[in-house]
Every structure is written in structure tokens, then in C-alpha cells.
Design a protein that fits this description.
Layout: E1 2-7, H1 21-44, E2 49-52, H2 64-75, E3 81-84, H3 95-104, E4 109-111, E5 118-121, E6 124-129, E7 154-160, H4 180-183, E8 188-192, E9 198-201, E10 204-206, E11 222-228, E12 236-241, E13 246-254, H5 260-267, E14 277-288, H6 289-302, E15 308-319, H7 322-326, H8 333-345, H9 352-372
Parallel strand pairs: 1-2, 2-3, 3-4, 6-7, 7-8, 8-10, 13-14, 14-15
Antiparallel strand pairs: 1-11, 5-6, 9-10, 11-12
Helix pairs in contact: 2-3, 6-9, 8-9
Length: 374
Amino acid sequence: MFRFVHSSDLHIGKRFGNMPEDLRGRLREARHAAIGRLAELARTHQASTIFLAGDTFDTETPTPAMLRQALAELGQSAPLRWILLPGNHDSLLADQLWNAARSAAPDNVVLATQPEILMLAEDVALLPAPCTSRRPGRDLTEWMTGAATPESAIRLGLAHGAIRDFSEESAASDVIPPDRAARAGLDYLALGDWHGPVAVSERTRYSGTPEPDRFKHDRPGEALVVSIAGPGALPEIAAVETGSFAWCTVPLHLLAGDDSVAALETLLPPGHVRRKTLLRIAASGRVRLGGRTALAAAADAAAPEFAHLELLEDALATDCESDDLDRIDRAGALREAAQALLDESSDETRLTAERAISREALVRLFSYCEATGS
């Protein structure tokens, strides 16, 4: 029995430039801390080795401190063994990165920088396919098919890249065949690049990232514990949650008569998890003008309790009747302005962005008048 942890895409050093400045540091530290969580996972499940299937670092030029601190953290988990594969973000073109890693890597870290057989034990052979560049444009796993290993050895593949549509790079081509494990006689093919877990086949998996970094996949961070009894045996695969932050998109569908604030409150997670939750509320349907302003105010009031909270309103239409406009003003310049904004926000001949600006302006005007009693 050979048991290992399959993970990938730590992206240590990711900048998170689209997030508020005070949150960026917390998210970056969580990616570094994933090393310790993976090590604890391996110890708990009595796994001897942890595969990182590419993109351990977010760029080809991590700072010396970032590299050395990551390697030192890996070294702390000895005798656990780490296998690091160059991915498309930290490819072999980064000579400085991998030369520095070779000089500083602790004894329990193996850098899989060559497409050659690595014997992890007498009866366990690893066939890595390191990324030669960000977009190699060819199947780097092809060499595995002809690689000879002892007949008694478990054959494991390790690669980073696209199968079918499973790629984080929009320009990436489909370069790894989905049946590579069968073609190469692999007992398991550990893949990286896709940040959500995907079962390509019973012998081929994307592990996903252990620490989520975007809303796209809407899944908790996970790693895979893989056990193989021997050559030809089907792998036993268990997904285990590893993330510290949760990135969630929650739909909120409203009808014109709904209490928008009450509907929002039913969707919010418990208070004790909010500090480590990044939440998007995707509002849709229809709501009265007063309900829309109340919804925005409730979201703003709850936001400080979360790592990040945003309300998406593009798919939410606003119903506005004369009594709604009366709450702004019954006549005069304000009423005329409110009517003009309402007309523009519902004018299908205008661009979506223009209608959104008009809608937001009307909501702000309504909120201001409600607050001041105008």
C-alpha cells in the first residue's frame, strides 16, 4: 500500500490586487499556511508523501524571502516528503527560482524538474511532466507512455495543464489526453492547474487548490488522500477539506412583494464563520424601490463582519410606482429627476452599463431623500 496526498496550485505570493488592502495580507498568509495544513493532513492519514502538481508559487519571480520561508516550512514537516512540480506560473523558464530552490531545498523536498523516472520506493515509480514554459503548446505527458518501470512497481504520473476545458488559462489548448493514464499504464495521474477538484476518470484527478483564491469554483479548499494497494489496483481516493477561507456565491431571488432584508438575513452564514468568509450575494428577480435601498443598506451593515461581502444587483430589476417616486418628491425638480432616471434605467435601447448607472443614481436619490426626510 502506498498512500500520498495530492494537491496543487498553492500560488504562494498571489497579490489579490482586486481585494481591499487590509484583506490581501490575510489571504496571502493563508496560502503559505496551507503548507502546514497539508502536512497535518498527511500525518493524520498516515501518508508518507505530498505531491504538489504545479504552481506552488504564483509567479516565476517570488522574492527570496518568500521562497526561503516556503522551503523552510516544507522542511519543518520531515520526515514527510514533498514532490514539487513546476507549473505554468512557476515553469522551468524561471531558472533563478529553481536554481535557488535547489540550493536551499531541505532533504525532504524533491524538485521534479526533469521528465524522468523518480523511484520513490523500490515498488513506486513517479513519472513527472514539469512545465517547460507558461504555455508549452504540446503534450508534456507523452513521454510517460514509453517509460519503462519495474513490473512490480506502482506507476504514478504528475502533471500540470489542460484536459478538455479544465484549464485556468483561457488561451490554453487541450494538450493532455483524458486517457493518458490508460495509455501510459499509470495507476494514478495527479494533475494541477484547475483550481476546483475534478474527477477526469477513476485514475485521473485534478485535486484543486487547498486554499481557494476566487469565486469561480464555489467549493471549499480540498486535497486528495490517495491509497494504492499495488500495480493495477484502483486507487482509493478521499477528498478532505483544507481551506481556511470560504469563497461563496449565494443566489438571492426576489419577488416584488418580498421582504428583501429578511430574505438576505436567511442567507447569511453564522456569525462565527463570517470573518473568514468572502461572500457574493447574487440578487435577481424584481423588487420595489424601497426594498432595493433597504437591501443595499442591510448588505452594507453586515459587510464589516465578513472578510469580504459584495451585493451583485445587475440581474435585479426595480419596480417603481408613483407612490415610490412620491417618497422622493411629489412635484418639482427632484420628481422630474427621479422620473428621468427611472425612464433611463428601464430603456432597453440603452447600454446595460448606462441603465445600471441610472438605476444606481435613482436608488441613491431615494436613499438620500429617505434619510433626510426630504
